[in-house]
Amino acid sequence: MSITPNLQPQAASRLVAEILWRDLDVEATPDAPLGPRTWYGAGGRAELLAAPRSLIALQTLTMRCYEQAIPVRVLGSGANLLVAEDGVDGVVILLDHPVFQQAQWSVASHHSLTRLHAGADLMGLIQESARRGLAGLSQLAGIPATVGGAIVMNAGGTYGDTAQSLHSIQLLTPDGITRTIPKADLECGYRKTVLPPGIVLAGDFALSPGDPDQIRDHIKEVFAYKSRTQPMADRSAGCMFKNPIDPKAGPTTAQRQSAGQLIDLAGLKGTALGSAFVSERHGNFIGLHAGGSTNDVLALAHAVQLRVLDRFGIRLEREVVVWSQRGEVL
């Protein structure tokens, strides 16, 4: 998630200075490489990479950035992200301190909520939920994400999505206020959650008591499906495009089509452009050879969009998020 005011990059460069963080409990790295922190392993640098070690430090840093109109982005696992070659302006925040990775589990015999903090690793939590006999996360097995990233993207797949068990979120607003927002007040759509400006701190999940062995079996089923159908060993960011709705279908019959199938039918599997390539195994995955560039991935993705539009009249919308000096590339 990003908090990006109307700001010229030159202004951000003058303002992202030590005065922002030198009196805070923050590990700060100016001019930090971001590419190695993404699954693509490509892209430029952050003007400032900041890892707060307390909620107060995060609140204060966020407020200072807001007051000085400095862009703020939050970096999770980097699994669904491309960073532009010229990097990003402003502050990139990491929620990788243990204070942002906690989990307050409900008791399996009760119907209380489980609070999962934004920086926690989703895959590890899914395994822990099975051990505790709590059902409601197994549909997300095999999705590499932090809890915050999964909420923002409403991460999911064939078996379900994050919103399915989400009850409410804790949001830090740009002016440093913590709000609880129920799911009913959020717009949880296909591969996105429309949120007010701010940073997701945690999600409260309604997990239900279940048999640990059955939950583990479901996790194995979901993961096995992904292993069979997706090129999990490739250097990529998962599905490049959202599954589109056929514009020719009526409003009551509209169903999402497989973007991968459309790309396959367009004869694009195996297509390469520079260091980027369309996977032979799943057309909706664009891989990148080691040492490759973000520009090649974006150029190939654009070429795929044009071919599918020309062949089927369907415009593919990118699912992978792209950061640049100007904000997200559309």
Q: Can you tell me about this structure?
A:
The chain is built from 7 helices and 21 strands. The protein is α+β, with helices and mostly antiparallel strands and 330 residues long. The radius of gyration is 20 Å and the shape is globular. Helices cover 25% and strands 25% of the residues. The longest helix is centred in the last third of the chain and has 19 residues, at 294-312. Mean pLDDT is 91; it is low at 2-12. The two termini are 15 Å apart. The protein has a 5-stranded mixed β-sheet with strand order 1-4-6-3-2. A 5-stranded antiparallel β-sheet has the order 7-8-16-12-13, covered by helices on one side. The chain has helices at residues 9-15, 55-67, 122-131, 147-153, 212-229, 259-265, 294-312; strands at residues 2-3, 26-33, 45-52, 72-75, 81-83, 88-94, 103-104, 114-117, 134-135, 156-157, 160-161, 166-172, 178-182, 187-189, 192-194, 199-205, 208-209, 272-273, 276-278, 286-288, 321-323. Strand 10 and strand 11 form a beta hairpin. The chain folds into 3 domains: 2-98, 2-Layer Sandwich (Uridine Diphospho-n-acetylenolpyruvylglucosamine Reductase, domain 2), CATH 3.30.43.10; 101-227, 2-Layer Sandwich (Uridine Diphospho-n-acetylenolpyruvylglucosamine Reductase, domain 3), CATH 3.30.465.10; 233-323, Uridine Diphospho-n-acetylenolpyruvylglucosamine Reductase, domain 1.
